[in-house]
Amino acid sequence: MNINASLFVQMVVFFLGAWVTMKYIWPPLINAIEERQKKIADGLAAANKGEKALAVATEQGKAIEAEARGRASSVVADGEKRAQAIVDEATAKAQVEADRIIANAHAEAAQVMQRAREELRNEVAVLAVAGAEQILAREVDKTAHAQLLEQLKAKL
């Protein structure tokens, strides 16, 4: 065969193969490649969007955590203030109760002292009468001298 004819046939087969490839094979390949590129681009955009959302969520979480710590510390401070107020109130009540008990003890002591004085006056009066009876060595009129003893008790 002739080399020119062979080259011509090869050239026709090549162009025919190129045309079939360009007409039937190339468009689905280009569509598949473009679709894959679009999916990759969408995935990268979603990843960037997710990273931004993660950063925002992290910042919000830190802000919420700081706010919660602030609230917790204020609750603790309020609790400590309330505890101190309760302690102060209990101390004041205890002081009032102690003052009342002391006042009652003083009053009771004064009453006991008054009773002791009265008993002492009575004993002194009895001893005075006994002494007067022995000195006079005669009978003493108890009714007449009772008034004198009462006056003596009042003076003591």
Description:
The chain has 156 residues and is an all-alpha fold. The protein has one domain. Helices cover 95% and strands 0% of the residues. The protein contains 2 helices and no strands. The protein has helices at 3-136, 142-155. α1 crosses α2. The chain is rod-shaped. The termini are far apart.
Instruction: Extract low-pLDDT stretches.
Output: none
Give helix % range: over 70%
Query: What proportion strand?
Result: under 5%
Ends apart, CA distance between termini: 171 Å
User: C-alpha Rg, in Å?
Assistant: 61 Å
Give the strand tally.
0
Protein structure class: mainly alpha
| Main sheet attributes: strand count, strand direction, barrel closure | none
Order of helices and strands: HH
Number of helices: 2
Give the overall silhouette. rod-shaped
Number of structural units classed as domains? 1
Q: Mean pLDDT, nearest integer?
A: 87
Question: Would you spell out the secondary-structure blueprint of this structure?
Answer:
Elements: H1 3-136, H2 142-155
Summarize the structure.
By secondary structure, this protein is mainly alpha-helical.
Summary tags:
mainly alpha, hydrogen ion transport, ATP synthase subunit b, single chain, ATP synthesis, transmembrane helix, rod-shaped, 156 residues
